[in-house]
Amino acid sequence: MDHDELVSSWFHLHSSVPFSYVQLPEARPGIVASGKNIPVVDLGLHDPSQTLKQILNASQEYGFFQVINHGVPKELMDDTLNIFKEFHAMPAEEKIRESSRDPNGSCRLYSSREVNNKDIVQFWRDTLRHFCPPSGEFIQFLPQKPAKYRELFVKYTQEMRTLGLKILELLCEGLGLDPKYCCGGLSDSPSLLGHHYPPCPEPSLTLGAPKHRDPTLVTILLQEKDINALQIFKDGEWIVVEPIPYAFVVNIGLMLQIISNGRFIGAEHRVVTNSGIARTTVAYFIRPTNEQIIEPAKPLISSGVRHKYKSITYEEFLRNFMSKGSDFEPELLL
Ligand code: OGA
Ligand code: NI
What we know:
This protein has helices at residues 7-10, 48-61, 74-89, 92-98, 112-115, 149-175, 254-259, 298-301, 314-324; strands at 40-42, 64-68, 107-111, 126-131, 191-197, 209-212, 218-223, 230-234, 237-240, 248-252, 268-271, 279-286, 293-294, 312-313. Strand 1, helix 2 and strand 2 (64-68) form a beta-alpha-beta unit. The protein has a single domain, classed as Jelly Rolls (Sandwich). By secondary structure, it is an alpha+beta fold. It is built from 9 helices and 14 strands. The model has no long low-confidence stretch (mean pLDDT 95). N-oxalylglycine is lined by residues 193, 195, 209, 214, 219, 221, 223, 229-230, 269, 271, 281, 283.
């Protein structure tokens, strides 16, 4: 990767948005719904059946919720956001060096310029992405700078695995499946993404991330207080996800939409930019291993309910999703 492929390397030199970052008029950030919010799920309720009800309603109606009383220490949440801020603030050469130890790409720094076809519009964001399987494989390829990066990464991904499995168990129980249904290969290949959205001179023309669904079972997002940038698309309107301090934003991904045979919504969302302040987020992607077959859970269709989706290996899904994006989604339907 070249230094100037990173948005953080050049954004400060511009007083307007370069043409390749200007979105088509229909994709630009516009009006958002006022007074609407996504549901909150309290994981610390005395009555677990109430928690189950909250999480089920949220997953069926919105595919998005914020979790509180989740048990992850506040200090670890602060430290993790800060270490990613420090990483993205390092000189470009250092960022590239620290993120390129694995020739097979288990750790990667990229911006949309590298991922997308050069002809399509780019996004105002840099991302550091790392695989973090429970086996601990790939740890030797993690950045060694900032100094605390590895230690925090290990602690944080352990907490995310615990929280993620708890959420998946509730969701599977709610579907009437074995609570452990998603706990094996379906969730054994997680990744962690540290996104950095630099300030943008013309936020009305750009996006930090396009409208998309995640290629995950579930995504757990840590975002900063006080910056409204994440929006979800529901019933034809954009709803802002207003950060609740020390809550996590959780969303259902396309894989769980398929496994649940469409009962849970893999909700569409996007990220807008702002001119004042950089925004950092940390996304934990709960993903299947490549060879896993993704299909509606058998117990959900044995009772005469119609299959809505084809069976596909995660590897094949990803290959198509990476090249065709959301255009591939209709092909998943039966
Ligand atoms: C993602 C995502 C939202 C954000 O990583 O898929 O949607 O606010 N991130 O960074
Ligand atoms: Ni997403």
